[in-house]
Amino acid sequence: MPTSVPGTQLVDRTAAVLRCVSGAMPAGLSTTRVAEATRLTRPTAHRILASLAANGLLDHDPVTNRWVLGPELYVMGALAAERYDITRVARESLRTLAAATGESAFLSVRRGEETVCLLREEGAFPIRSFVLYEGIRFPLGVASAGLAILSFLPDERVDDYLARNDLTLAHGRSHGTGPLRDRIRATRATGYALNPGLIVEGSWGMGATVFDPHGEPAWALSLTGIEPRFSAERRPALGRLLLEQAHRVTQELRRRPGS
């Protein structure tokens, strides 16, 4: 979760509800599931959901009794896309990665202390991993995209993040500080991140960082697939492809007007 600002509890709760619902699109979530996911009481969650719906930021489906994103968010997103959307730039790279490797290729964005998957391009290989999908969120350091981004933050910011977050609670001992620091060092050495089946056994991933015009690690390109497709012999070639395309997207962003 992004760092909270003192005195803004209602804003923090509302933002948490919106993120929760967005992560469950297109199916949406019931009030009970929103309350559980945000650790709010059910009455509090319902009041926030109803208020967001009254303002057009959410919709309530009376048939499924679930909450989904509303039309006002579409309008806001369309306006924000002019500045923040890189999917048009990245889509070509995802297609290149998927075609060259046969694996599923993804674009993820850093939002606060999480990554959000924005875009997916399927490869030709018939057996796929479904760990990632558009809208899913992971903490930084979890999954190859989150590891790639965390690894290229300055040391003091990595130290602060790890001191405040215990990733083992939700993601197991492999995401303890020691193992995670080892993977950060390996990522910095090769330039690309490796997730050797740490989220779902047998589902591997690799990721490379895309930097914004100020040099901040803001996005990541990644590939996922089954373990045999990520052999030690093949990983260097996959890593080079990821780095080439991540560099291409980074350079395209720097050439944008106003960058």
TrEMBL record:
PANTHER family: HELIX-TURN-HELIX TRANSCRIPTIONAL REGULATOR, ICLR FAMILY, TRANSCRIPTIONAL REGULATORY PROTEIN. This is DNA-binding IclR family transcriptional regulator. GO terms for molecular function: DNA binding; DNA-binding transcription factor activity. It comes from Compostimonas suwonensis. Residues 72-255 form the IclR-ED domain. The keyword Iron-sulfur does not apply. GO terms for biological process: negative regulation of DNA-templated transcription. Pfam families: HTH_IclR (PF09339), IclR_C (PF01614). Keywords: DNA-binding, Transcription, Transcription regulation. InterPro entries: GAF-like_dom_sf (IPR029016), HTH_MetabolicPath_Reg (IPR050707), Tscrpt_reg_IclR_C (IPR014757), Tscrpt_reg_IclR_N (IPR005471), WH-like_DNA-bd_sf (IPR036388), WH_DNA-bd_sf (IPR036390). SUPFAM superfamilies: GAF domain-like, Winged helix' DNA-binding domain. PROSITE patterns: HTH_ICLR (PS51077), ICLR_ED (PS51078). Residues 8-71 form the HTH iclR-type domain.
